[in-house]
Amino acid sequence: MLSFVVLSGLCLSFACALATPVSAAGNIIDTIRNGTGTSGTGGANMENIADKVYGTQKNVDINTMVVTVINGILGLLGVIFLVLTLYAGFLWMTAAGSDDKVGKAKNILTTAIIGLIIIFASYAIVNFVLSALGTTV
Fold it and tell me: What digits encode the pLDDT tens for the residues 73-87?
């Protein structure tokens, strides 16, 4: 259990180290102070501030939305596989020789691997269909 906590802490620290800082607040303050808006008086307006924070809105077609949703679902399924694998490994390591717990862990691991194979197959099918339609995953 201690090694799991330490490993999780290391992964979290690496994720925090790789995160990029957000500098939108400085841009908003500069926009408000300098008055670089496009309103008639030369002051900052809300549209300009929103563009600095959220960026400009782009027209998104249905294919891009479908690809984004599918990638999100497949990513979530990958996380579920990882959690099931960790749970099965934890059950197996704490079984203490109990055949019932080892059998349950093997069953969870087997079904998780079958699920991963199904996820890979569905990704391949979706990638093939969307590439035939001219959209990349």
Answer: 888 888 999 999 999
Judge if 133 and 90 occupy the same domain.
yes
How distant, in Å, are the alpha carbons of 1, 6, 19, 81 from that of 9?
A: 12, 5, 15, 20
Whole-model pTM: value is 0.53
Q: What is the DSSP string of 43-81?
A: ---HHHHHHHHH-------HHHHHHHHHHHHHHHHHHHH
**Count of beta carbons in the 10 Å neighbourhood of residue 130:** 16
d(CA 118, CA 128): 15
The string of pLDDT tens digits covering residues 10-23 is 556 555 545 445 44
CB 36 within 8 Å of CB 48:
yes
Enclosing domain of residue 48: 21-57
**What 8-state DSSP symbol labels residue 134?**
T
